[in-house]
Structures are given as C-alpha cells and as structure tokens.
Specification:
7 helices; 5 strands; alpha/beta; 13% strand; Rossmann fold; five-stranded parallel beta sheet
Length: 182
C-alpha cells in the first residue's frame, strides 16, 4: 500500500535552540517548504519578558509560564483544527517541551545547535531583536537535550530544511506502516 505523505495527521514541529541558532529562519523556510503555518514563539512573550531580556536579565520559570501557556494554546489550536505548523521556540528545558507536547504522536522537536563563536557572530549581526547577547551563556547553561533530532547549524539553511523535511516524511511513512500492520 502506498502512502500519500501530504495527507497525514495534523502535527506541530517545534524548532528549538538557543538565541542565534536560526530557529525562525529555518522554521519559516521549513513551513514554506511543507506548506504549513509558521508560529513565531517570540511574538508571544509578554512585554515584561521582552523588557527584562532587553535589560540583559535572564528569564526564570515564573517569567516563562505565561509565554509557554500561550504557545501551548497555539499547539492545541493547531491540533484541534487538524492543521500542521512549525513553531520556533527555544524550549531549552525538558519541562518546557513537556508542556508543549500535548500529543507525543503529533508534536515533535528538533534542535539547532552550533559552536558558541558562530552563535555570537550571528547575534552580533542581528538587528532589531530584543534578546541581549549577554544572555546566550545563560541559555546554554540551562539547555537539556533528550531524544530530539539535533542538527548542526554550520551548514546551508536549505540543507537543514531538507534534512528536517526528510525526517518528517520518514517518520510519517513508518507511522503508516505500523498502522497498516495492526
């Protein structure tokens, strides 16, 4: 039996990583490539979080909760509407990803990782972003990886997009095979 990979169950792929890893750039290109909705996680930060980060102060778990709740609502809405989306969101700790993972079969995570020098160079080149470069180390310090797909950012963006898209298609095909065998 053949499977049309475009007729699959709705899902959300969360593109994670520290500031400067390319979450938004990769997420937008991937969403365009797949024909999915793109959700910019930074747009959901309350103004108090933005002001704190602009001052170079790291967010704590209490600061992150309203933001994560908003993102969780977007994930829920996407799944309920039976659509698919790419969410660009740091989600650096396992507990944050657990909060976003409303359905482990339909919510997945990919991490973009790179050398600190490359990340700093990208942050210095940024314009009009609220994240202070001084916060990069605090993000690296709290990063917790688990079973997520991890990709090196020191490669062309289109290669990263192709790798993620192929990973999605492969996992969809495996789900279809497992479903057919039951």
């Amino acid at each position: 039996m053949t499977h049309d990979l475009h007729e699959t169950q709705s899902q959300v792929l969360v593109v994670c990583g520290v500031s400067g890893s390319g979450k938004s750039t990769v997420g937008k290109r991937l969403a365009h490539h797949l024909g999915w909705r793109f959700i910019e996680g930074d747009d959901y930060h309350p103004s108090s979080n933005v002001a704190k980060m602009q001052r170079g102060e790291a967010l704590n778990d209490k600061d992150r909760q309203p933001w994560l709740q908003q993102l969780q609502g977007e994930v829920k809405k996407t799944l309920e509407l039976e659509t698919s989306a790419i969410l660009a969101c740091s989600a650096l700790q396992k507990i944050y990803r657990q909060q976003l993972c409303l359905d482990p079969q339909r919510v997945r995570f990919v991490f973009l990782m790179g050398e600190v020098t490359l990340l700093k160079n990208r942050l210095m080149a940024r314009q009009n972003h609220f994240m202070a470069m001084s916060l990069l180390q605090s993000q690296i310090d709290i990063l917790e990886l688990a079973d997520e797909l991890v990709l090196d950012i020191d490669q062309p963006i289109e290669q990263i997009v192709r790798t993620i898209a192929n990973n999605i298609k492969s996992s969809q095909a495996l789900k279809g095979i497992k479903h057919d065998e039951q």
